[in-house]
Amino acid sequence: MTRHVVARAADLPPGTRKKVSVENRDIVVLNIKGELFALSDKCPHKGASLCGGLLTGLVRSDGPGDYQYERKGEILRCPWHQWEFDVRTGRSYCDPRRMRLMQFPVAVEAGASVVEGPYKAETFNVSVEDDYIVLDVP
């Protein structure tokens, strides 16, 4: 896997998202209540960018007149045809056995650890004060 720094953590607070391009792949990184998710930004149905899609929840029912709204903000809806995807699994609610979004490991790492890396290069004295969002792409 190749690691990529895609943003400062402070630039992606809870409730926001960011579209990034890594190795010719468009990826949407979402911060939902402080938890990060990274998914392919392309809807497998017709190719729409999911970054502009609505984050919603699920309505469950055990019978007529009995409704529960669950998982608020964890379902990403395609802006073109309203296909819904679970941000935790990437699976489509329209066709969960066949349709899914590619997921990418994503984490926040301290700036000092990102700077260290496995590379050898000329160095200068600097200070790193921020945390960064790092994406792993296979």
Terminal Cα separation, in Å?
A: 4 Å
Physical arrangement of strands within the biggest beta sheet: 1-9-8
CATH superfamily, by name, is: Rieske [2Fe-2S] iron-sulphur domain
Low-confidence stretches: none
Description of the structure:
With 138 residues, the chain is mainly β. It has one domain (2-137): Rieske [2Fe-2S] iron-sulphur domain (Rieske Iron-sulfur Protein). It is built from one helix and nine strands. It has one helix at residues 111-116; strands at residues 2-8, 16-22, 25-32, 35-40, 54-63, 66-77, 84-86, 106-110, 131-137. The model has no long low-confidence stretch (mean pLDDT 86).
In short:
The protein has one helix spanning 111-116, and strands at residues 2-8, 16-22, 25-32, 35-40, 54-63, 66-77, 84-86, 106-110, 131-137. By secondary structure, the chain is mainly β. The protein has one domain (2-137): Rieske [2Fe-2S] iron-sulphur domain (Rieske Iron-sulfur Protein, 3-layer Sandwich), CATH 2.102.10.
Which terms would index this structure?
single chain, 138 residues, mainly beta, Rieske Iron-sulfur Protein
